[in-house]
Write a structure and sequence with these properties.
With 179 residues, this protein is an alpha/beta fold. The chain has six helices and six strands; from the N terminus they run H-E-H-E-E-H-H-E-H-E-E-H.
Length: 179
């Protein structure tokens, strides 16, 4: 961890502790209409297949994509927010205010985090800042649980198709008891 990551990691930990007090609403896959996906541009090919499956299920999909300068930027036919490492992240590792504002305005019944354990802290910060009432992602064995619903993955494993399929399976099997 570099010195500049210290401050964002400290803020992330405070946000994680405070997230226990936010409003949570479990959503069955059938009742979920808007899904926000967080991902890295380097995983785009695998994530794109997940997006196509969700769109085939008649879900409205928005994507927040983190890209390094050398990553090729693509044009998509659906809502996305591109977060570029050098342009949209400040010296201390925090996303700039206009990125946070844009992210907060993306509608989402469910936030689906498809980033890996080695993703930049800025993505975790963005995930914690979004007002979605149901957050889903991978929990790695040696990491904290950041989500309302998570699939446990072995450290060093970043298999998006497997993770996505497991999430779909469980969300289809589990029924909500919410009134």
């Amino acid at each position: 961890m570099t010195f500049t990551e210290y401050f964002i990691n400290r803020k992330i930990e405070r946000l994680r502790k405070a997230s226990g007090t936010r409003r949570l609403r479990y959503r069955e896959l059938d009742e979920t209409r808007h899904i926000l996906i967080l991902c890295d541009m380097s995983d785009w090919k695998a994530v794109e297949a997940c997006i196509h499956r969700l769109k085939a299920m008649k879900k409205s999909v928005h994507v927040c994509v983190y890209a390094l300068k050398q990553d090729p930027t693509r044009i998509w036919d659906y809502g996305y927010l591109l977060v570029e490492a050098k342009k949209d992240i400040d010296f201390w590792g925090f996303p700039k205010k206009y990125i946070l504002d844009q992210l907060r305005h993306l509608p989402a019944d469910m936030l689906l985090d498809l980033t890996g354990a080695g993703s930049p802290p800025a993505l975790r910060y963005l995930m914690l800042q979004h007002p979605a009432t149901f957050k889903v992602g991978a929990k790695y064995v040696s990491d904290r649980n950041w989500y309302d619903f998570s699939i446990v993955m072995e450290d060093g494993t970043h298999d998006i198709p497997f993770l996505f399929q497991q999430i779909l399976n469980y969300l289809q099997m589990i029924r909500s008891k919410n009134p």
